[in-house]
Amino acid sequence: MLIRKLNLKKISKNPKTSKFSFSTPEFEGYNSEGTQFILHRFSTKVSDEGLIDDLRVVSNEFISNAVDHGNRGDPNKKINIFCLWVKDKFYFAVQDEGPGFDIRNPIFLSPPPPEASLGLKYSQQRLNLIYNFNDSCSYACKVVN
To answer: What is the DSSP-derived secondary structure letter of residue 111?
Structure first.
């Protein structure tokens, strides 16, 4: 199965793309509205609770990472979420205002906690593709047959 890696330019220019923006929450964690935005777009074509739960876990991870690592908890910075269905493929992207990173080899500014990067590794087990382009955006794709 071939899955194209769509970049933010391709995703955002598609007229079928949905976008949601919010300011970085001032408390530790993530914005549940962002997760609900992703889940709502996904559930327009999928009702399988297992698949929806997989997406919930991954979207929480992506948004938490954007808040904590990308925007460093700065409430003056924004997080953008993009969702797009392309036939049987659901793409979503979470963009922060951080310097960017390589999702295959995240670099930490301070020594990471023992569980560092486990969320991304666990996310890779739940979706078909997780990637980035060394930018400030994390991308995911779930194929639904």
So the answer is: P
Q: What is the pLDDT of residues 94-131, one digit of tens each?
A: 999 998 877 776 554 544 554 555 566 667 778 999 99
Q: Return the domain boundaries, the chain.
A: 8-143
Alpha carbons 75 and 16: distance in angstroms, whole number = 29
In tens, the pLDDT along 11-62 reads 999 999 999 999 998 765 567 899 999 999 999 999 999 999 999 999 998 9
Residues in CB range of 47: below 8 A, 6 or more apart? none
- The residue length of the chain stands at 145
Q: How many C-beta neighbours within 10 Å does residue 131 have?
A: 17
pTM assigned to the model: 0.88
- CATH fold label, 8-143: Heat Shock Protein 90 (3.30.565)
d(CA 56, CA 71): 21
- The burial of 19, by beta-carbon neighbours within 10 Å (0-12 exposed, 13-18 middle, 19 or more buried), is given as middle
Which residues, at least 6 apart from 53, have a Cβ–Cβ distance to it below 8 Å? none
Q: Which residue has the tokens 């970085």?
A: 24
Nearby residues of 35 by Cβ (< 8 Å), 6 or more positions away: 56, 59, 60, 63
